[in-house]
Amino acid sequence: MLHEKPIEPELEQKLCNVVRSSTPLMSALVAVRSLGLTSWCIGAGAVRSLVWDQLHGFETPTLMGDIDVVYFDHAFGDLDQESQLEERLRKINPDFQWEVTNQAHIHHWFADHLGQTVPPVISLADGISTWPEIATCVGVYLGSDYSIKVIAPFGLEDLFGMHVRHNPRRASAETYRERVYSKRFAERWPLLSIE
Question: Whole-model pTM above 0.90?
């Protein structure tokens, strides 16, 4: 069971400001909000890359190729639901490569596709807390008043401290190392501290 770390208020505000300054990410958030999901966020690379680009002072941010949309809903358990949501998002904004995942049933995907037995997660935040790097375990969504809300089970210190370290909750050390290498973290963001 997840014991969330409180989010640092100043870093939360900083993240909200960074997100609001990104027209593409705000457009993606509005698109996902229109789906009417009750528990959702955009997370992982879309948020991480935006923050690290800004901290590195890049004039041109990394293009948002894929948008990881995660939600938590026990009522929908099949991949057809995720595909239908992706299709709806493509109709709203075809410029993004949408990837939608229901965290309530992700343990079935691990069993079916990777042959791994992993425990089910109990909430959206619990699902996010299993992602391979601590700095990547961050998601944002729009509240009912269109304010930016943050889900960060481990806080935001690693993200803004540009500290990359393995989250052992689900990913192996080998998977973590492969991701750091394949995503070219050190090459793309040379100021990172990578464990």
Answer: yes
